[in-house]
Amino acid sequence: MPIGPNGEKRPASVVSNAVRTMMVATGETEETIVRSTALRRAKERSHALHDRVVMLTAARVRLRDP
Questions:
Q1: What pLDDT, on the 0 to 100 scale, is given for residue 25?
Q2: Cβ atoms 3, 10 nearer than 8 A
Q3: pTM (two decimals)
């Protein structure tokens, strides 16, 4: 969402969105898809959490087996 003059978030212009949609539909412009860095961070975090879960599970198994 765009940020207003006082720092508040406000909805984007409906007319601008409609014009952009029609330009993409008619082929005048290409649709650009921006991949967020949040997706990359989430993927890295999931790998890190997976490694931690594996380590903790192995430790629990070692404690359980005499």
A1: 92
A2: yes
A3: 0.34
